[in-house]
Please model this.
Amino acid sequence: MTNPDSAEHHEWLTAERRRLFDFASAARGSEGGFGWLDEAGKPSPSRPVETWITARMTHVFSLAHLLGEPEAAELADHGIAALADQLRDSEHGGWFTSTVDTTKGAYEHAFVVLATSSATAAERPGAAELLTEALRTLESRFWDEQAGLGLESWDRTWTTTESYRGANSNMHLVEAMLAAGDVTGERIWQQRALRIAGTLIDEVARTHGWRLPEHFTPTWEPNPDYNSDRPHDPFRPHGTTVGHWLEWSRLLLQLEASLGEESPNWLISDARNLFEAAIQHGWHADGHPGFVYTLDWQDRPQVRERMHWVTTEAVLAAAALHRRTAEPYYQRWYATFWDFARTRHIDYGQGSWHHELTPDGRPSTTVWSGKPDAYHAYQAALFPTLPLAPSAATALRPAPH
Model:
C-alpha cells in the first residue's frame, strides 16, 4: 500500500513532478503567457492566452524552480512578464480574464495572487511588485468586508459588478490568501480566509449536510437552480461539485495549521465531514470507479464524467487528513486514490494526465478538452511531501542568509 511518508513513494512523486514539468513546459507561448495544451501537449492556436492558465503555470514553474528544476526559473519569469504586460490592465488596474475578454474575475485574480506569491518566494524579478498590486486590487475591488466574502466579477472599468456570487472563486481566494499571508507576513490574509471558510463551510455546507452549494444570490442566499440548463459547465455547473468538498477539506487543514493556536476547533471536524460526504455520495456513485463530477440535490449523479482534478484533490485531502491525524484510515484512502490515478488518469504515452474520463475510463471531452492544467496534478505530486503550513512556496523557500 502506498505510504505517503515512505522514501520510495517520495521518489515516485519526484519523478511524476518532473514528468509533469516536461509536458507543461510546451505551453510557453511565443507571444507571451502560457497556452492551452491539447491531448498530445501541443498549444491550441485557436484559444487566447487566459489569465487563470498563465497564473497557474507561473505558480507551478515557481515551485519547480524552488525544487531545483532546470529551466523552471525562465518559465516562471515568462509567466510574470505576461501578468505584468498583456494580461494586466495598465489603464484601469487589475487583470483581464484573457487576451480577448476584458472582464475581471475573482477567480482569475485569486490565481494572480497565488502565482505572484509563489514567484516572490522564488525571488523572481518583478514578482513582489506584482503581488503588492494584486493584493491591493483584491482588497479594494473584490473583498466585501461586511459579508466577509469575495465579489465575483467586474467589467473592465470597475463600474458594474456581477449579481452572481460563487463558492468556487471564494475557495481559491482562501488558497491565495494563505499563500500571500505566508509570503508577506500579513496575518490579515489568514484571518480573511477564515471568514470565508467559516461562512461557506461551517455555516452553509454544515446546514446542507456537507453538500456545499456553489451558486448564490447577491445577498449570499443559495441558488440551487442556477445553470440547471448547463450541467456540464466547467466552472459553474448545476448542482453540487464533489471535488470541491475534497478541496475544501484540504484547505481547512492548511488554514488550521497556518493559524496555529488561533485556529477554531471546527476546522478539523469540518474537514473530516466534507471528506466523508465526498466518499459517501461521490465515490463509485454510479457503480463505476472514481468520483462523479456533480450531483443533483437528491445526491444522484448528474454529470458522471471523472475529472482529473477531483482525483488529485482526493489525494491531497487524504494526505492532509493523514498528516493531521496519523490515522491509517486516511492512508488507505490515499493509496486508493493514487491507484485510481495511476491506472486511469495518468497518460504514460503522451504525457500529463487525462483531464476527463467517461465512467468506464475512456478519455472524454464533455467538459474539458486537452490537458491545459498542470496545477492540480503537480500539487498532488508535491504537497504530500510538505507540512500543512506554511504554503508550498514558503515551505520551499531557502532560509535567509
